[in-house]
Amino acid sequence: MAVKIAVTNQKGGVGKTTVTINVAGALAAQGRKVLLVDLDPQGHATEGLGLTEIYDETEPHLASRLQDLNAPHSADELIYSHNEFDLISSNVDMFMLESELTGAMRARQRLRLVLEEIEEDYEFILVDCPPSLGHLTDNALLACRNVLIPALAEGTSIRALEILYDQVESLEQGYDTEITELGLVANRVENDGEAEDMMEWFEGTFGGQLPIWEVRKRVALKRAWSSGVSIFDHDESSDMETVFEDIAVHLEGVA
Ligand SMILES: Nc1ncnc2c1ncn2[C@@H]1O[C@H](COP(=O)(O)OP(=O)(O)OP(=O)(O)O)[C@@H](O)[C@H]1O
Ligand SMILES: [Mg+2]
Q1: Residue 104 in 3-state DSSP?
Q2: Sorting pLDDT into bands at 50, 70 and 90, what band is 165?
Q3: How many other CB atoms are found less than 10 A from the CB of residue 75?
Q4: Is the C-beta atom of 20 inside 6 A of ligand 1?
Q5: Average confidence (pLDDT) over 158-175
Q6: Burial of 31 from C-beta contacts in 10 A (0-12 / 13-18 / 19+)
């Protein structure tokens, strides 16, 4: 059975997609069979992996499976292969899901049902979450029951993490389940005093309970993204490879 991991933080632009793609790339480079699920209606991971045409295509899509418990497509039909790992893409219909799922039956458990069909084929399934708390993120949390949390090394992350932890706790209570935080990826895109203070805050608050990795701002991460691959499949070496390798090694320990 695959280890399923929701890469999540409802705050926008903190590095969720960057972390998802590069952790997936690191696990694949270590020989693991990986599936990346793009659960963000914006489709940044789908686009970042060079599959924009799939985002624009009509059915079958993950959105149609999440919209309709009786949709005819099997989960297999949603999978595309990429150089490094497999992908279930997002598409524009995903934007409608938040309102469509409101009041619907098993509204927060639909992704779990989809992943159950295919999880035997993978060692890791990583879900890139949207920048919001709502049905989609709840689906990811309940399907994966493991979270990897990217957060900017800036003061706004304190409130963002409180809100995320509250949501995790309320799902745990409401669904009588356990959701495990696997680690915090501190994305240090600025290198000022605030970033320094926040690294200390992360350490003081989570150190000892959670592994904390520090990702620095690197143009190599952007260039790999523009080339449709992770830094591991890009012909430019980066010192961030060791950070993503460390994350992958830690996740393998969880498997
Ligand atoms: N460490 C980094 N070095 C360089 N660029 C970065 C880094 N982290 C993020 N970025 C860039 O910042 C932007 C936002 O990052 P990303 O898309 O990964 O965040 P996100 O949390 O997924 O955003 P959203 O909430 O919109 O889904 C992207 O253009 C990405 O390339
Ligand atoms: Mg994103």
Answers
A1: coil
A2: very high
A3: 19
A4: no
A5: 98
A6: exposed
Kindly report the CATH number assigned to the domain that includes residue 124.
Answer: 3.40.50.300
Contacts of 219 (CB under 8 A, 6+ apart): none
Tally the domains of the chain.
1
Q: Is 38 in the pocket of ligand 1 (CB under 6 A)?
A: no
For residue 82, give its domain range: 3-254
For residue 197, how far is its CA from the centre of ligand 2 (angstroms)?
25
CB of 16 within 6 A of ligand 1: the answer is: yes
In this predicted model, what pLDDT tens digit does every residue of 171-213 receive, in sequence order? 999 999 999 999 999 999 999 999 999 999 999 999 999 999 9
Please check whether residue 40 is in contact with residue 210, taking contact to mean a CB–CB distance below 8 angstroms: no
- Regarding the beta carbon of 189 and ligand 1, being less than 6 Å apart is answered yes
- 219 CA distance to ligand 1 middle (Å): 11
